[in-house]
Every structure is written in structure tokens, then in C-alpha cells.
Amino acid sequence: MSLPATIVPTEVLETYLEPVLEGKLTDVYREYANGYTQKIAEGYECLSTCTVERDGQVIVWEERRLVVRSFKHTKAQKTAEQKRLAKAEAALANLTIHRRGKKRLTTLAEIQSTTDDILKRYQVEGVVIGSML
């Protein structure tokens, strides 16, 4: 899951992604009590200088930030996205079925508006699902 813009501004997020795109990641392992070791994530560490003014005094310190991608979390996100996509596809396919008492979408604008609403509801805007027309 990406961090919301309220936590990390877009410019900062882009700098966080540079090492990822360049492949400069360190593997993260978990060691179990029986001695078994499993790779559970990958990421990197960066330093960030922080500043705050308090009672007229400027305080500066460095924070160590870990940028990590958990494999288990990534898998859960992909599964959830696939479920949302399936629900959105079903809702879109349902648009063309004629039923008694159900409003028919007659104009391209109505179809587009309803389609956009469905994609937004299932949080899959920008994901290509297919063509209905």
C-alpha cells in the first residue's frame, strides 16, 4: 500500500522509489526458532534530516527511515485488488442486462458516468478491464 500524500508528499515518494527502480534493495529475512530462514521482504535504509522550532530554539536531528516491501502484504494487496476487479467487472457486465424496473442507459454520457461511478466504488480507476461497447 502506498503512503497517502498527507504522510509523504509526492516529491518525497519519488525519491523513495529511486533505489527501488534502480534495484538497490537489501533482502530482509526472518529466522525461526528451528533455524529455518525465510526471505520476507526487501528494502533499503535512508537518512532524513528533520528540523523543528520549539520555544524559539531550532532542534535538528537525523532519522533513519526504512523503506520496505513486505511480500505477504504485497500478496494480500494483489488478492484484494483481484477481488475488487472481479466485482467491478460483474457490475459493469450487469449494466447491459435489461430488467423490469431498471433504468436503461441510453446515452454514451450516462454509460460513461455510471461506469466511472462503478470503477470509483471498487477503487479500480485507471485499471483496464475491457470493452463493453
In short:
This protein is an alpha+beta fold and about 130 residues long. Helices cover about 40% and strands about 30% of the residues.
What is the H/E order? HEEEHH
Helical coverage, percent range: 25-40%
| % residues in beta strands | 25-35%
Question: Compute the gyration radius: what is it?
Answer: 23 Å
Count up the helices.
3
Distance between the termini: 33 Å
Low-confidence stretches: none
Write down the domain tally: 2
SS-based class:
alpha+beta
Q: What is the number of E strands? A: 3
Largest sheet: 3 strands, antiparallel
Mean model confidence by pLDDT: 87
What spatial form do the alpha-carbon principal axes imply? flat
How are the strands of the biggest sheet laid out side by side? 1-2-3
List keywords for this structure.
133 residues, alpha+beta, three-stranded antiparallel β-sheet, 3 helices, 38% helix
Describe the structure.
- The chain contains three helices and three strands, in the order H-E-E-E-H-H.
- The protein has 133 residues and is α+β, with helices and mostly antiparallel strands.
- The protein folds into two domains: 10-75, no CATH class; 80-121, no CATH class.
- A three-stranded antiparallel beta sheet has the order 1-2-3.
- The mean pLDDT is 87.
Show the helix and strand layout:
Blueprint: H1 10-22, E1 26-31, E2 37-54, E3 57-70, H2 71-94, H3 108-121
Antiparallel strand pairs: 1-2, 2-3
